[in-house]
Amino acid sequence: MHIVYLTNEYPTQQVAHGGIGTFVQNIARNLVQQQIKVSVIGISMTASKESFINDKGVQVYRIPQSKASLGKFIFNSFRIRKKIKEIHKQTPINIVEGSELSFAFLPKKTWYKKVIRMHGGHHFFAVTLNKKPALWRSFQERVSFKKADALIAVSNFVGETTQHLLQFKKPYTTIYNFIDVSHFNKKCDVEIQPNAILFIGTICEKKGVKQLIEAFLLVKNNIPNATLHLVGRDWKSEEIPSYTSYIKKRIPKMYLQDVTFYGTVSYEQIPTLIAQSEVCVYPSHMESFGLTVIEAMATKKAIVFSDIPPFKEIIRDQKDGLACDPFKPSDIAEKIIFILTEKKQAAAMAQNAFDAVHQKFNLENSLQENINFYNAIH
């Protein structure tokens, strides 16, 4: 079997990545170990020529984006189609997988099966964040779903919500994202920095960074030596050139020395950063799954998480961590303070989370679920 993943986020030193990139790298590397050939195709926003790397057996191709002023997404899709044909001539392709918009401008009839893995598309995030979907992106997403041969949802909530919003009748299979638990639990005994609060994710509005900063200021009133550590790529838009710079301006100068922005770090560094913290906080306004949450669980860490449906599928309130209202800094602060002061209860929740992640998100079972799915459709 030969599987191709379409993503611009596959992690390398030159590419800032998020949860999708991390997931694709995890599954791709492990599929290769099962003697399944895997290729990855992504558009590079900065490169002037095509590049190729072999990442532990995964063949990763980066194609320079089109320079067209209009219809760039269409021309980029044509370049992807061309690369798929080139790779297929070398080793026949059975499956091509991408996220919600991936197949809008690819052919409907193909020799390979097209799989959409619903990580949370345009409709999903627009509606759940109380925004109006953009017409052009909405059109692309609907066309892409019509062309897909099979669907995977990374949580029941994202599957049900997307199906309702797009009103498609195709069945979908829920397969939770997974991690290599051993990559994280080997760091469980790293020395903890007292009262260190950690956030991992894109530094942007929908991840609840603004509310987390406000909550941290409240925490400082009760725990003066608390520190906040934020790991993740900076979010940029036409209105806000740098969300990190924007959010730093909201921090009083007297507290700036207690807040550290790391930017993007390698996947190898993540377990140590989690292990060194005393509490991990994920106040997202909405998610499709929550890979960073299970990474913290696997590192036996106390967690404060948003009271949103996808997180409820992963972690139990009061048992594995503490749920908070992500729009109320006072509630986020209250839960952080509880974990930092009630050590015994925090340790018990961290142990419960550690046990749960081994049962529900272990690599062996989750990888086999994916392989069974691929075998069933190709």
Characterize the quaternary organization of these chains: single chain
SSE string, helices as H and strands as E: EHEEEHEEHHEHEHEHEHHEHEHEHEHHH
Principal-axes geometry comes out as globular
The CATH fourth-level homologous superfamily of the largest domain: Glycogen Phosphorylase B
Instruction: Output the CATH topology of the largest domain.
Output: Rossmann fold
Euclidean distance between termini CA atoms: 9 Å
Organism: Lutibacter aestuarii
Protein name: Glycosyltransferase family 4 protein
Domain Glycosyl transferase family: 193-353
Keywords: Glycosyltransferase, Transferase
Summarize the structure.
This protein has two domains: 2-178 and 363-377, Glycogen Phosphorylase B (Rossmann fold, 3-Layer(aba) Sandwich), CATH 3.40.50.2000; 181-360, Glycogen Phosphorylase B (Rossmann fold, 3-Layer(aba) Sandwich), CATH 3.40.50. The chain is 42% helix and 18% strand.
How would you characterize this protein structure?
The protein is of the alpha/beta class. The chain folds into 2 domains: about 1-180 and about 365-375, Glycogen Phosphorylase B (Rossmann fold, 3-Layer(aba) Sandwich); about 180-360, 3-Layer(aba) Sandwich (Rossmann fold), CATH 3.40.50. About 40% of the residues lie in helices and about 20% in strands. The strands form 2 sheets. It has an 8-stranded mixed β-sheet with strand order 3-4-2-1-5-6-7-8, sandwiched between helices. A 6-stranded parallel β-sheet has the order 11-10-9-12-13-14, with helices on both faces. GO terms for molecular function: glycosyltransferase activity. InterPro entries: Glyco_trans_1 (IPR001296), Glyco_trans_4-like_N (IPR028098). Its EC number is 2.4.-.-.
